[in-house]
Amino acid sequence: MTGLPALVSLRSVSRTYRTDSAAVIAVHDVSFDIKRGERVAIMGPSGSGKSTLMNMVGLLDRPSAGAVLLEGEDVDDLPDDRRSELRSQSIGFVFQSYNLLARHNALQNVELPLVYCGVHRKERKLRAQECLKAVGMLHRAQHFPKQLSGGEQQRVAIARALVASPAIILADEPTGALDSRTGADILALFDTLHDGGQTIVMITHDASVAARCERTIVLRDGQIVADEMNAHTANGIATQ
């Protein structure tokens, strides 16, 4: 694999939002690479630019300056339909608030990314069932979000993120709405995914969550103030 481009590269990326009275710099001159198979935490206080950064990596937003590359391809100047296609095929999202559709059961929620990818109905169902099984939720496939606990909803959301076999999963505070025990179960599930080779980026304010990752990038006022490898035990969990 030597010589292959990084999975994600940011090159001097900045993002400025303009209001009627001022320009607000959310991210300023940020550069880093994420290699295939890495698990990276992005930390920082509220307003540090974490979510803005994730939106650019996830092709939900475009930088005001600099470049975002996905597997060596500059994606910033691509038309919206091509960016949407890449997002559906290559990026899985897991959110703090789960973002499940209330009128769809668990199986239907997991199938949704495959609908956007044009996958045939029969194959969609099989792949969605496989992903629900992988996160321990196949027995709840016909249940609607309101019938599921927070931890169960997050497991369904993770299955949805996995179903299109994405190159990278972006998880924004994935345990923020959960109690500590349920959050630990979800983090253990991410451990298993990473052990299987999945590339994961976690946005978090929780140092204990970041410690489970191989690497932590710290943002403050839209700039990187630290980018460090974490010490790990043999089983992949950070030492205390």
Would you report the number of β strands? 10
CATH topology: Rossmann fold
Number of helices: 7
What share of residues is helical?
25-40%
Give the overall form.
Answer: globular
Strand order across the largest sheet = 6-7-8-3-9-10
- Report the sheet-strand fraction: 25-35%
CATH architectural group = 3-Layer(aba) Sandwich
Can you tell me about this structure?
This protein is α/β, with parallel strands linked by helices. It has one domain (36-59, 79-229): Rossmann fold (3-Layer(aba) Sandwich). Helices cover 32% and strands 27% of the residues. The strands form two sheets. The chain has a six-stranded mixed β-sheet with strand order 6-7-8-3-9-10, with helices on both faces. Mean pLDDT is 92; it is low at 233-240.
In short:
The chain has 240 residues and is α/β, with parallel strands linked by helices. It has helices spanning 50-57, 80-90, 106-116, 121-134, 150-162, 180-195, 207-210; strands at 8-18, 23-34, 39-43, 65-70, 73-74, 91-95, 168-172, 199-203, 215-220, 223-229. The protein has 7 helices and 10 strands.
Task: Considering the chains and any ligands shown, give keywords for the structure.
10 strands, four-stranded antiparallel beta sheet, 7 helices, 27% strand, six-stranded mixed beta sheet, disordered C terminus, alpha/beta, Rossmann fold
